[in-house]
Amino acid sequence: MQISERFEYDVAIMGAGLAGMSAAVKMAEDHPDLKVAVLTKVHPVRSHSGAAQGGINAAVARDDKWEDHYYDTLKGGWFLGDQDAVRVLTEQAPNAIYELDRWGTSFSRSADGNYAQRPFGGQRRNRTCYVQDITGHALLTTLFEQVTKRGVDVFWEWFVFSIVSDGKDFYGFLAFDLKTGKIGFFSAKAGLVATGGAGRVFGQSSNALINTGDGMALAWRAGVPLKDMEFFQTHPTGIPNGILITEGARGEGGYLVNKHGERFMEKYAPQFMELAPRDLVARSIHTEIVEGRGFDDGCVRLDLRHLGKEKLTQRLPQIREIAMYFAGVDPIDDPIPVRPTVHYTMGGVDVNTDCATPVRGLFAAGEAACVSVHGANRLGGNSLLETVVFGIRAAAMIPKSLGEKKEAPASLIEAEMANFNALFDGEATESVPALRTEMEKTMVAGLGIKRDAAGMKKGLTDIEAVRARFSGVRVANRNLTFNMEAFRAIELGCMLDIAYACAFASVAREESRGSHYHLDFPKMDNARFLKHSLVTREDGNKLHLDHLDVTIVDTKPLDQITY
Ligand SMILES: Cc1cc2nc3c(=O)[nH]c(=O)nc-3n(C[C@H](O)[C@H](O)[C@H](O)COP(=O)(O)OP(=O)(O)OC[C@H]3O[C@@H](n4cnc5c(N)ncnc54)[C@H](O)[C@@H]3O)c2cc1C
Questions:
Q1: pLDDT digits over 259-283, tens only?
Q2: Which of 201, 258, 321, 465 lies 20 to 30 Å (CA to CA) from residue 104?
Q3: Distance separating alpha carbons of residues 190 and 282, to the nearest angstrom
Q4: Mean pLDDT throughout 327-342?
Q5: pLDDT tens for residues 490-508?
């Protein structure tokens, strides 16, 4: 297969979720002279940001201040967040809300006309702005309208399979159009990776099937380290098939009970109860279940009945529908069965606070990036915020960085095309679904919500073996038009890279911090591990681990975290 078209842009954005589209809209507004393209493997409004229910944080209330949001975020992240990055996030948060409002978001309002705000875990104020329980959907459609209005070129159902770089400079993206099978090279002075999270490496998860970490893996192959990959967040409340019941349900007053009818959070977080940070609530539910206090279906219950029909139908209509259609209970009459579900990738593409990677011209933002605002555990409502704040920031920083366009060396493109073509060459000896199931099981068994040294080491060895077997994967259908076989095979290759980096970084972290709960080292250890992990690839398959100090500006990290 060969490249059939060459596109020339100033900036090419990989991903049309909230991060990619905020960057595109802001760049189109402030730099209308720049030629910007957005590529996305699904239609923009099917990006996973649309699934976000609960809301977006910002200290916009009169009695709130960004400094409090800053501290809550640092503490919620077990002080692994870089303080300069967290400052950008929280200080710029009100501005992000005003921009979204100006672009047309219909935020829910309180009676006095101000933004309505609900409480979310680990925060001392009602700080989460929302649009009912469809916040992500409302924001995504707003931004898509803006992208369309401003005439940004959007290439939807184009699958990026390579970031072309020599490890020093970025040259462009290689992608194929699912609708026509055409292969394009998108040459650009700068590229932004905004491809979202990789929660699907664990199989059952709140994440969409498309959250396979493609951008993280492709950036890694292009020479950028992956940062803090040991930290995958488990959300406390998924229904049995993994679909999420937003933290907003607890924010509205929902509480958790075990099979004895006890509000067990009293034991684990007496002050914050159900509104403790996610890692703590998820581990508490897990403990109740494994110690035999769960129900026969392996869940505890989230009780919303006391909120009453009116509040439930006004504030949490989507949650009611999800519970009715996917868990078979109407929360007006019955509590919802819930258990922890893998949810968010705190680690990702290594970037600085300007969204720049170490490869010149390559940037990243949103869940795919690790600018390090969430540390070891993300507070609910801070991720939508990150996408918009750093999408806007990327739109300010990228234009400043643009120099002359560099021609991509032909040998580089040929090498990337040869890798791609190899997938279609010869007979398969391995099956994509079988390897994917194996990967998911391995990750859950060895790198789940509570980990130990032996389990993680076995997980690492097993993932290494599955990853080696990927070389036997071939795509039988040689026509690229709507070739979902190729789509799934490339995604699996990316997920195996992410899983491998996660296992590799996890084994080395001999402490418990946030979502990395190590049974052999149950305490946080600032003396040895107040550090980021950076995993790089050497000669393709060997991995290398570095540690990098966390940026401390003005706040001394606590030695233990209690709520
Ligand atoms: C169920 C659920 C509920 C949530 N609720 C909240 C909430 O209430 N508040 C909050 O703050 N956070 C919430 N989050 C987290 C938040 O929604 C996400 O972190 C955020 O939306 C990620 O946005 P993004 O722009 O980085 O990526 P995404 O929205 O995931 O977009 C990724 C984009 O990249 C594209 N892409 C990926 N791979 C390729 C490829 N190979 N080629 C081309 N394009 C590609 C996709 O097509 C897509 O357009 C929730 C998450 C989930 C799963």
A1: 999 999 999 999 999 999 889 999 9
A2: 321
A3: 39
A4: 96
A5: 999 999 999 999 999 999 9
Beta strands 5-14 and 36-40: pairing type? parallel
Strands of the sheet with 336-345, listed across from one edge: 232-238, 336-345, 300-303, 255-257
121 lines ligand 1 (CB under 6 A): no
Q: Quote the Cα angle for 551-234-375, to 5°.
A: 5
Integer angstrom CA distances of residue 376 from 67, 511, 563: 20, 12, 16
Cα-flanking dihedrals φ and ψ of residue 18, to 5°? -65, -35
Q: How far apart are CA 520 and CA 177, in angstroms?
A: 48
| Alpha carbon distance 352, 400 (integer Å) | 15
From the CA of 381, give the closest atom in ligand 1. 11
Q: pLDDT, tens digit, for every residue of 213-264?
A: 999 999 999 999 999 999 999 999 999 999 999 888 998 999 999 999 999 9
Q: 57 pairs with which residues across the strands?
A: 128
Please report the pLDDT score of residue 436 as a whole number: 97
**446 in contact with ligand 1, CB cutoff 6 A:** no
Question: Which residues are the active-site residues?
Answer: 278
Atom 27 (ligand 1) nearest CA? 196
Nearest to 303 by CA among 223, 352, 245: 245
Local structure of 98: helix, strand or coil: helix
Q: Which token pair is 67?
A: 């400094």
Beta carbons of 38 and 24 less than 8 angstroms apart: yes
Ligand 1 atom with least separation from CA of 382: 11
| pTM of the predicted model as reported, rounded to 2 decimal places | 0.96
| Chain mean position to CA 202 | 13
- Tell how far the Cα of 296 is from the centroid of ligand 1, in angstroms: 33
